[in-house]
Specification:
Layout: H1 12-23, E1 27-28, H2 35-39, E2 52-54, H3 59-71, E3 75-79, H4 86-90, E4 96-100, E5 107-110, E6 115-119, H5 124-132, H6 148-154, H7 161-164, E7 171-177, E8 183-187, H8 192-201, E9 207-214, E10 220-229, H9 233-243, E11 251-259, E12 274-282, H10 286-297, E13 303-304, E14 307-310, E15 327-334, H11 339-349, E16 359-364, E17 386-393, H12 397-413, H13 439-452, E18 466-467, E19 473-474
Helix pairs in contact: 1-3, 8-13, 11-12
Length: about 475
Protein backbone atom coordinates (compact mmCIF):
# COMPACT_ATOMS: atom_id res chain seq x y z
CA UNK A 1 0.00 0.00 0.00
CA UNK A 2 1.28 3.45 -0.90
CA UNK A 3 0.09 6.57 0.90
CA UNK A 4 0.76 9.93 -0.72
CA UNK A 5 1.16 12.43 2.07
CA UNK A 6 0.32 15.36 -0.17
CA UNK A 7 -2.86 13.82 -1.53
CA UNK A 8 -6.31 14.88 -0.29
CA UNK A 9 -8.28 13.38 1.25
CA UNK A 10 -6.16 10.79 3.07
CA UNK A 11 -5.77 9.36 6.52
CA UNK A 12 -2.04 10.07 6.36
CA UNK A 13 -2.23 13.78 7.17
CA UNK A 14 -4.52 13.40 10.21
CA UNK A 15 -2.27 10.62 11.48
CA UNK A 16 0.84 12.71 10.92
CA UNK A 17 -0.73 15.65 12.73
CA UNK A 18 -1.73 13.34 15.57
CA UNK A 19 1.88 12.21 15.89
CA UNK A 20 3.05 15.83 15.79
CA UNK A 21 0.69 16.67 18.60
CA UNK A 22 1.85 13.76 20.73
CA UNK A 23 5.59 14.07 20.06
CA UNK A 24 5.85 17.82 19.53
CA UNK A 25 8.53 18.81 17.05
CA UNK A 26 9.99 15.33 16.95
CA UNK A 27 7.99 14.19 13.91
CA UNK A 28 9.26 15.22 10.47
CA UNK A 29 7.33 14.95 7.19
CA UNK A 30 8.52 15.39 3.60
CA UNK A 31 8.91 19.11 2.96
CA UNK A 32 9.63 19.96 6.59
CA UNK A 33 12.90 21.83 7.20
CA UNK A 34 14.21 19.00 9.39
CA UNK A 35 13.08 16.07 7.23
CA UNK A 36 16.29 15.53 5.25
CA UNK A 37 18.47 15.49 8.35
CA UNK A 38 16.02 13.26 10.19
CA UNK A 39 15.89 10.60 7.47
CA UNK A 40 19.68 10.41 6.95
CA UNK A 41 21.19 7.05 7.97
CA UNK A 42 24.80 6.39 8.97
CA UNK A 43 25.50 5.24 5.42
CA UNK A 44 24.71 8.55 3.80
CA UNK A 45 24.78 7.00 0.33
CA UNK A 46 21.42 5.37 1.14
CA UNK A 47 18.49 7.55 0.09
CA UNK A 48 15.66 6.55 2.43
CA UNK A 49 12.47 8.60 2.04
CA UNK A 50 9.89 7.50 4.59
CA UNK A 51 6.39 8.90 4.95
CA UNK A 52 7.42 10.38 8.30
CA UNK A 53 10.30 10.23 10.78
CA UNK A 54 9.59 10.13 14.52
CA UNK A 55 12.02 10.55 17.40
CA UNK A 56 10.46 9.06 20.56
CA UNK A 57 12.00 9.63 23.98
CA UNK A 58 10.34 6.82 25.92
CA UNK A 59 8.81 3.38 25.52
CA UNK A 60 5.39 4.99 25.95
CA UNK A 61 6.07 7.31 23.02
CA UNK A 62 7.23 4.36 20.90
CA UNK A 63 3.96 2.62 21.70
CA UNK A 64 2.02 5.73 20.71
CA UNK A 65 3.80 5.95 17.36
CA UNK A 66 3.07 2.29 16.62
CA UNK A 67 -0.61 2.55 17.51
CA UNK A 68 -1.27 5.81 15.65
CA UNK A 69 0.72 4.80 12.59
CA UNK A 70 -0.85 1.34 12.35
CA UNK A 71 -4.37 2.73 12.74
CA UNK A 72 -3.75 4.94 9.68
CA UNK A 73 -2.40 2.07 7.58
CA UNK A 74 1.29 2.88 7.93
CA UNK A 75 4.00 0.36 8.52
CA UNK A 76 6.67 1.17 11.11
CA UNK A 77 10.44 0.65 10.91
CA UNK A 78 12.80 1.06 13.87
CA UNK A 79 16.26 2.49 13.23
CA UNK A 80 18.97 3.76 15.54
CA UNK A 81 22.11 4.61 13.56
CA UNK A 82 21.19 3.20 10.15
CA UNK A 83 24.42 1.30 9.49
CA UNK A 84 22.52 -1.36 7.53
CA UNK A 85 19.90 0.91 5.97
CA UNK A 86 20.28 -0.13 2.33
CA UNK A 87 18.00 -3.19 2.31
CA UNK A 88 15.24 -1.26 4.11
CA UNK A 89 15.35 1.69 1.74
CA UNK A 90 15.28 -0.64 -1.25
CA UNK A 91 11.86 -1.94 -0.17
CA UNK A 92 10.27 1.48 -0.63
CA UNK A 93 9.26 3.56 2.36
CA UNK A 94 6.27 5.51 1.04
CA UNK A 95 4.01 3.94 3.66
CA UNK A 96 6.55 3.68 6.48
CA UNK A 97 7.00 5.76 9.61
CA UNK A 98 10.70 5.57 10.40
CA UNK A 99 11.17 5.46 14.18
CA UNK A 100 14.63 6.84 14.94
CA UNK A 101 15.66 5.67 18.39
CA UNK A 102 18.65 7.96 18.90
CA UNK A 103 17.02 9.94 21.74
CA UNK A 104 16.69 6.76 23.80
CA UNK A 105 20.39 6.07 24.32
CA UNK A 106 21.24 5.47 27.98
CA UNK A 107 23.53 2.63 29.08
CA UNK A 108 23.74 1.57 32.74
CA UNK A 109 25.78 -1.28 34.24
CA UNK A 110 24.31 -3.36 37.05
CA UNK A 111 27.24 -5.21 38.65
CA UNK A 112 24.97 -7.04 41.10
CA UNK A 113 23.14 -8.72 38.22
CA UNK A 114 26.21 -8.83 35.96
CA UNK A 115 24.46 -7.04 33.11
CA UNK A 116 24.38 -3.80 31.19
CA UNK A 117 20.95 -2.34 30.45
CA UNK A 118 20.66 -0.04 27.43
CA UNK A 119 17.83 1.77 25.74
CA UNK A 120 16.89 0.87 22.19
CA UNK A 121 18.88 3.67 20.56
CA UNK A 122 22.14 3.25 22.48
CA UNK A 123 25.45 2.89 20.65
CA UNK A 124 28.34 0.76 21.83
CA UNK A 125 30.81 3.20 23.37
CA UNK A 126 28.68 4.20 26.42
CA UNK A 127 27.91 0.55 27.13
CA UNK A 128 31.58 -0.39 26.86
CA UNK A 129 32.50 2.42 29.26
CA UNK A 130 29.73 1.45 31.69
CA UNK A 131 31.02 -2.13 31.88
CA UNK A 132 34.66 -1.04 32.09
CA UNK A 133 33.91 1.07 35.17
CA UNK A 134 33.36 -2.27 36.96
CA UNK A 135 36.33 -4.07 35.39
CA UNK A 136 34.09 -5.86 32.91
CA UNK A 137 33.56 -6.03 29.16
CA UNK A 138 30.65 -6.63 26.79
CA UNK A 139 30.56 -8.28 23.37
CA UNK A 140 30.74 -5.05 21.37
CA UNK A 141 31.56 -4.74 17.70
CA UNK A 142 34.43 -3.12 15.84
CA UNK A 143 33.09 0.44 15.93
CA UNK A 144 32.03 2.65 18.85
CA UNK A 145 29.07 4.24 17.08
CA UNK A 146 27.17 1.18 15.87
CA UNK A 147 23.67 0.83 17.32
CA UNK A 148 23.56 -1.92 19.94
CA UNK A 149 20.04 -3.13 19.12
CA UNK A 150 20.55 -3.70 15.39
CA UNK A 151 24.00 -5.22 15.90
CA UNK A 152 22.81 -7.54 18.66
CA UNK A 153 19.54 -8.66 17.06
CA UNK A 154 21.44 -9.52 13.87
CA UNK A 155 24.22 -11.55 15.51
CA UNK A 156 27.26 -9.53 16.56
CA UNK A 157 30.89 -10.54 15.89
CA UNK A 158 33.43 -8.75 18.09
CA UNK A 159 36.94 -9.16 19.46
CA UNK A 160 35.90 -11.70 22.09
CA UNK A 161 33.66 -13.71 19.75
CA UNK A 162 35.69 -16.88 19.32
CA UNK A 163 35.82 -17.23 23.12
CA UNK A 164 32.29 -16.09 24.02
CA UNK A 165 30.24 -16.41 20.82
CA UNK A 166 27.81 -14.07 19.11
CA UNK A 167 26.67 -10.99 21.01
CA UNK A 168 23.03 -11.91 20.40
CA UNK A 169 23.40 -14.91 22.70
CA UNK A 170 24.69 -12.73 25.55
CA UNK A 171 21.32 -10.93 25.66
CA UNK A 172 19.44 -11.78 28.85
CA UNK A 173 16.24 -9.78 28.24
CA UNK A 174 14.56 -7.64 25.61
CA UNK A 175 11.79 -5.10 26.05
CA UNK A 176 9.90 -4.24 22.90
CA UNK A 177 6.71 -2.68 21.62
CA UNK A 178 4.79 -5.20 19.54
CA UNK A 179 2.29 -4.57 16.77
CA UNK A 180 -0.72 -3.74 18.94
CA UNK A 181 1.28 -1.08 20.79
CA UNK A 182 1.87 -3.19 23.89
CA UNK A 183 5.23 -3.07 25.66
CA UNK A 184 6.33 -6.61 26.50
CA UNK A 185 9.37 -8.17 28.12
CA UNK A 186 10.95 -11.30 26.68
CA UNK A 187 13.52 -13.43 28.44
CA UNK A 188 14.24 -17.09 29.08
CA UNK A 189 11.02 -17.59 31.06
CA UNK A 190 8.70 -14.81 29.82
CA UNK A 191 7.62 -14.78 26.16
CA UNK A 192 10.35 -17.35 25.56
CA UNK A 193 9.49 -17.98 21.89
CA UNK A 194 9.72 -14.27 21.12
CA UNK A 195 12.99 -14.09 23.05
CA UNK A 196 14.37 -16.90 20.90
CA UNK A 197 13.24 -15.21 17.66
CA UNK A 198 14.61 -11.73 18.27
CA UNK A 199 18.10 -13.05 19.07
CA UNK A 200 19.19 -13.34 15.45
CA UNK A 201 15.85 -12.62 13.80
CA UNK A 202 16.36 -8.87 13.60
CA UNK A 203 13.76 -6.14 13.79
CA UNK A 204 10.81 -8.11 12.43
CA UNK A 205 8.97 -8.59 15.70
CA UNK A 206 8.71 -5.17 17.30
CA UNK A 207 10.60 -2.05 18.29
CA UNK A 208 13.20 -2.71 20.97
CA UNK A 209 13.04 -0.11 23.73
CA UNK A 210 15.59 -1.77 26.03
CA UNK A 211 18.11 -4.59 26.04
CA UNK A 212 19.92 -6.31 28.88
CA UNK A 213 23.05 -8.31 28.19
CA UNK A 214 25.77 -10.12 30.07
CA UNK A 215 29.04 -8.57 31.20
CA UNK A 216 32.24 -10.64 31.15
CA UNK A 217 35.25 -10.65 33.47
CA UNK A 218 37.57 -9.00 30.97
CA UNK A 219 39.49 -5.94 32.16
CA UNK A 220 42.46 -6.09 29.78
CA UNK A 221 43.45 -7.97 26.65
CA UNK A 222 46.60 -8.58 24.64
CA UNK A 223 45.50 -6.73 21.52
CA UNK A 224 46.65 -4.61 18.61
CA UNK A 225 47.50 -4.87 14.93
CA UNK A 226 50.26 -6.07 12.60
CA UNK A 227 50.82 -4.03 9.42
CA UNK A 228 52.64 -4.74 6.17
CA UNK A 229 52.78 -3.05 2.80
CA UNK A 230 50.29 -4.63 0.40
CA UNK A 231 53.23 -5.82 -1.70
CA UNK A 232 53.89 -8.37 1.07
CA UNK A 233 50.35 -9.72 1.34
CA UNK A 234 50.79 -13.15 -0.25
CA UNK A 235 52.88 -14.88 2.44
CA UNK A 236 50.94 -13.07 5.16
CA UNK A 237 47.55 -14.15 3.80
CA UNK A 238 48.69 -17.74 3.25
CA UNK A 239 50.08 -17.99 6.78
CA UNK A 240 47.01 -16.43 8.41
CA UNK A 241 44.48 -18.40 6.32
CA UNK A 242 46.18 -21.70 7.18
CA UNK A 243 46.49 -20.84 10.90
CA UNK A 244 43.13 -19.19 11.61
CA UNK A 245 40.67 -22.14 11.35
CA UNK A 246 42.48 -24.19 13.98
CA UNK A 247 43.52 -21.35 16.28
CA UNK A 248 42.45 -21.64 19.92
CA UNK A 249 39.31 -19.92 21.12
CA UNK A 250 41.07 -17.18 23.07
CA UNK A 251 42.19 -15.31 19.93
CA UNK A 252 39.96 -13.48 17.45
CA UNK A 253 41.43 -11.66 14.45
CA UNK A 254 40.64 -10.14 11.08
CA UNK A 255 42.69 -9.49 7.95
CA UNK A 256 42.18 -6.55 5.60
CA UNK A 257 43.69 -5.56 2.28
CA UNK A 258 43.35 -1.78 2.23
CA UNK A 259 43.76 0.97 -0.33
CA UNK A 260 43.60 4.16 1.70
CA UNK A 261 43.26 7.54 -0.02
CA UNK A 262 45.61 10.35 0.91
CA UNK A 263 43.84 12.24 3.70
CA UNK A 264 45.55 14.87 5.87
CA UNK A 265 43.63 13.78 8.97
CA UNK A 266 45.17 10.29 8.78
CA UNK A 267 48.59 9.41 10.25
CA UNK A 268 51.38 9.00 7.66
CA UNK A 269 51.56 5.23 8.10
CA UNK A 270 47.99 5.01 6.74
CA UNK A 271 47.40 8.00 4.46
CA UNK A 272 47.67 7.24 0.75
CA UNK A 273 48.99 3.73 1.26
CA UNK A 274 48.13 0.19 0.18
CA UNK A 275 48.38 -2.10 3.20
CA UNK A 276 47.56 -5.45 4.72
CA UNK A 277 46.50 -5.29 8.38
CA UNK A 278 45.80 -8.10 10.83
CA UNK A 279 44.18 -6.92 14.04
CA UNK A 280 42.73 -8.80 16.96
CA UNK A 281 42.72 -9.66 20.63
CA UNK A 282 43.93 -12.49 22.85
CA UNK A 283 42.11 -13.32 26.08
CA UNK A 284 45.16 -14.68 27.82
CA UNK A 285 48.58 -13.75 29.10
CA UNK A 286 51.14 -11.73 27.16
CA UNK A 287 53.19 -14.90 26.82
CA UNK A 288 50.22 -16.73 25.34
CA UNK A 289 49.64 -13.88 22.91
CA UNK A 290 53.26 -13.92 21.81
CA UNK A 291 53.04 -17.66 21.25
CA UNK A 292 49.89 -17.39 19.13
CA UNK A 293 51.27 -14.56 16.98
CA UNK A 294 54.75 -16.02 16.46
CA UNK A 295 54.11 -17.30 12.94
CA UNK A 296 52.78 -13.92 11.76
CA UNK A 297 55.50 -11.95 13.49
CA UNK A 298 58.09 -14.08 11.71
CA UNK A 299 56.92 -12.37 8.50
CA UNK A 300 58.46 -9.06 9.67
CA UNK A 301 55.53 -6.65 9.95
CA UNK A 302 56.30 -2.98 9.42
CA UNK A 303 54.31 -2.16 12.56
CA UNK A 304 53.36 -4.30 15.55
CA UNK A 305 51.16 -2.70 18.22
CA UNK A 306 50.08 -5.84 20.11
CA UNK A 307 50.41 -5.19 23.84
CA UNK A 308 48.47 -5.38 27.09
CA UNK A 309 45.70 -2.77 26.80
CA UNK A 310 42.46 -1.88 28.61
CA UNK A 311 39.62 -3.93 27.19
CA UNK A 312 37.54 -0.81 26.53
CA UNK A 313 40.17 0.46 24.05
CA UNK A 314 39.24 -2.35 21.66
CA UNK A 315 36.09 -0.51 20.60
CA UNK A 316 38.36 1.57 18.32
CA UNK A 317 40.99 -1.04 17.46
CA UNK A 318 39.59 -1.60 13.95
CA UNK A 319 39.77 2.15 13.16
CA UNK A 320 36.34 2.09 11.51
CA UNK A 321 35.05 5.49 10.33
CA UNK A 322 32.76 7.23 12.78
CA UNK A 323 29.94 9.67 12.34
CA UNK A 324 28.59 8.48 9.00
CA UNK A 325 30.06 7.87 5.56
CA UNK A 326 28.90 6.98 2.03
CA UNK A 327 29.72 3.33 1.42
CA UNK A 328 28.95 0.46 -0.97
CA UNK A 329 29.74 -3.17 -0.18
CA UNK A 330 29.07 -6.88 -0.54
CA UNK A 331 29.75 -9.91 1.65
CA UNK A 332 29.81 -13.70 1.80
CA UNK A 333 30.28 -16.48 4.35
CA UNK A 334 33.07 -18.89 3.52
CA UNK A 335 33.09 -22.57 4.43
CA UNK A 336 36.85 -22.71 3.87
CA UNK A 337 39.74 -20.66 2.56
CA UNK A 338 42.24 -23.00 0.90
CA UNK A 339 45.13 -22.05 -1.33
CA UNK A 340 42.83 -21.59 -4.32
CA UNK A 341 40.81 -19.04 -2.32
CA UNK A 342 44.01 -17.17 -1.50
CA UNK A 343 44.77 -17.07 -5.22
CA UNK A 344 41.29 -15.76 -6.02
CA UNK A 345 41.50 -13.08 -3.33
CA UNK A 346 44.91 -11.88 -4.52
CA UNK A 347 43.76 -11.84 -8.15
CA UNK A 348 41.08 -9.31 -7.23
CA UNK A 349 42.66 -7.12 -4.54
CA UNK A 350 46.34 -8.03 -4.40
CA UNK A 351 49.23 -5.71 -5.26
CA UNK A 352 49.17 -4.24 -8.75
CA UNK A 353 45.43 -4.82 -9.17
CA UNK A 354 43.11 -1.98 -10.09
CA UNK A 355 40.31 -1.79 -7.55
CA UNK A 356 38.02 0.89 -6.16
CA UNK A 357 37.69 -1.02 -2.89
CA UNK A 358 38.83 0.76 0.24
CA UNK A 359 39.00 -2.55 2.05
CA UNK A 360 38.60 -6.27 1.49
CA UNK A 361 38.25 -8.02 4.83
CA UNK A 362 38.20 -11.56 6.15
CA UNK A 363 36.97 -12.09 9.70
CA UNK A 364 38.06 -15.20 11.52
CA UNK A 365 35.16 -17.34 12.73
CA UNK A 366 35.24 -20.73 14.45
CA UNK A 367 35.74 -21.34 18.13
CA UNK A 368 32.64 -20.53 20.17
CA UNK A 369 31.10 -18.93 17.06
CA UNK A 370 30.91 -22.34 15.43
CA UNK A 371 29.41 -24.24 18.36
CA UNK A 372 25.71 -24.17 19.33
CA UNK A 373 25.14 -21.85 22.27
CA UNK A 374 23.12 -23.52 24.99
CA UNK A 375 19.98 -21.48 25.52
CA UNK A 376 20.84 -19.27 22.57
CA UNK A 377 18.55 -17.62 20.09
CA UNK A 378 17.63 -18.32 16.50
CA UNK A 379 21.22 -17.54 15.45
CA UNK A 380 23.16 -19.60 17.96
CA UNK A 381 26.19 -20.36 15.75
CA UNK A 382 27.81 -19.51 12.41
CA UNK A 383 28.66 -22.55 10.31
CA UNK A 384 31.62 -21.07 8.44
CA UNK A 385 35.35 -20.51 8.82
CA UNK A 386 35.38 -16.89 7.67
CA UNK A 387 33.08 -14.07 6.69
CA UNK A 388 34.24 -11.86 3.82
CA UNK A 389 33.25 -8.20 3.56
CA UNK A 390 34.45 -5.68 1.00
CA UNK A 391 33.51 -2.12 0.21
CA UNK A 392 34.50 1.30 -0.97
CA UNK A 393 33.46 4.89 -0.74
CA UNK A 394 30.31 6.03 -2.54
CA UNK A 395 30.90 9.77 -2.67
CA UNK A 396 28.88 9.91 -5.90
CA UNK A 397 26.41 7.39 -7.35
CA UNK A 398 28.93 6.50 -10.05
CA UNK A 399 31.77 5.96 -7.59
CA UNK A 400 29.45 3.93 -5.39
CA UNK A 401 28.37 1.76 -8.31
CA UNK A 402 32.00 1.03 -9.13
CA UNK A 403 32.79 0.09 -5.53
CA UNK A 404 29.74 -2.16 -5.33
CA UNK A 405 30.67 -3.84 -8.62
CA UNK A 406 34.21 -4.51 -7.39
CA UNK A 407 32.88 -5.90 -4.10
CA UNK A 408 30.46 -8.18 -5.96
CA UNK A 409 33.27 -9.32 -8.25
CA UNK A 410 35.39 -10.31 -5.25
CA UNK A 411 32.53 -12.29 -3.72
CA UNK A 412 31.93 -14.01 -7.05
CA UNK A 413 35.61 -14.98 -7.15
CA UNK A 414 35.23 -16.46 -3.65
CA UNK A 415 31.91 -18.17 -4.46
CA UNK A 416 33.44 -21.66 -4.84
CA UNK A 417 34.41 -21.48 -1.16
CA UNK A 418 31.16 -19.97 0.15
CA UNK A 419 28.65 -21.92 2.23
CA UNK A 420 25.54 -20.43 0.61
CA UNK A 421 24.50 -18.58 3.78
CA UNK A 422 24.39 -14.87 4.59
CA UNK A 423 25.50 -13.10 7.73
CA UNK A 424 22.81 -10.43 7.68
CA UNK A 425 24.68 -7.81 9.71
CA UNK A 426 27.13 -7.56 6.81
CA UNK A 427 24.47 -7.84 4.07
CA UNK A 428 24.05 -4.17 3.18
CA UNK A 429 22.17 -4.95 -0.03
CA UNK A 430 18.84 -6.77 -0.38
CA UNK A 431 19.25 -10.54 -0.01
CA UNK A 432 16.90 -13.45 0.55
CA UNK A 433 16.59 -13.44 4.34
CA UNK A 434 16.05 -17.20 4.29
CA UNK A 435 19.72 -17.61 3.38
CA UNK A 436 20.68 -16.84 6.98
CA UNK A 437 18.76 -19.76 8.51
CA UNK A 438 18.06 -23.45 8.19
CA UNK A 439 14.69 -24.46 6.73
CA UNK A 440 13.18 -25.53 10.05
CA UNK A 441 14.33 -22.37 11.81
CA UNK A 442 12.85 -20.30 8.99
CA UNK A 443 9.49 -22.01 9.43
CA UNK A 444 9.52 -21.21 13.14
CA UNK A 445 10.48 -17.58 12.50
CA UNK A 446 7.65 -17.02 10.04
CA UNK A 447 5.20 -18.55 12.48
CA UNK A 448 6.33 -16.30 15.33
CA UNK A 449 6.24 -13.23 13.07
CA UNK A 450 2.66 -14.15 12.11
CA UNK A 451 1.66 -14.44 15.75
CA UNK A 452 3.18 -11.18 17.03
CA UNK A 453 2.64 -9.04 13.89
CA UNK A 454 -0.39 -10.52 12.11
CA UNK A 455 -1.06 -7.44 9.97
CA UNK A 456 2.51 -6.71 8.89
CA UNK A 457 2.98 -3.54 10.92
CA UNK A 458 6.77 -3.73 11.09
CA UNK A 459 9.22 -3.23 8.24
CA UNK A 460 12.71 -4.65 8.78
CA UNK A 461 15.85 -4.31 6.71
CA UNK A 462 15.95 -8.11 6.33
CA UNK A 463 12.27 -9.10 6.39
CA UNK A 464 10.81 -12.31 7.74
CA UNK A 465 7.40 -12.80 6.08
CA UNK A 466 4.10 -13.64 7.73
CA UNK A 467 1.97 -16.62 6.73
CA UNK A 468 -1.39 -16.74 5.05
CA UNK A 469 -3.88 -19.10 6.63
CA UNK A 470 -2.95 -21.71 4.01
CA UNK A 471 0.70 -21.49 5.00
CA UNK A 472 1.99 -19.50 2.03
CA UNK A 473 4.34 -16.65 2.94
CA UNK A 474 3.44 -13.00 2.54
CA UNK A 475 5.23 -9.76 3.40
Amino acid sequence: MTIELNAEPTTAIPAAHALRGLLGGRVHLPGDPGYDAARLPWNVAVDQRPAAVAFPRSAAEVATVVRVAASAGFRVAPQSTGHNAGPLAAQGLDDVVLVRMSEMATAIADPNRGIVRVEGGAIWEPAVDAAAAHGKAVLHGSSPDVGIAGYSLGGGIGWFARKHGLATNSITAVELVVADGTLVRADATTNAELFWAVRGGGGNFGIVTALEFQMFDIETAYAGFLLWDLADIEPVLREWAAWAPGAPDEITTSLRAMRIPAMPELPPFLSGRELVIIDGAVLGSDERGEQLLAGLRALDPEMDTFARVPAKSLVRLHMDPEGGAPFASDSAMLASFPGAAVDAFLAEVGPGRESSLLMAELRQLGGALGRPHEGGGVLNRLDAQFVAFAGGMAITPEVGAAAHADAVRLMEALAPFANGRQYLNFAENPVDTRSAYSADVWTQLTGIRSAVDPHGTFAANHPVPRLFENGAPTA
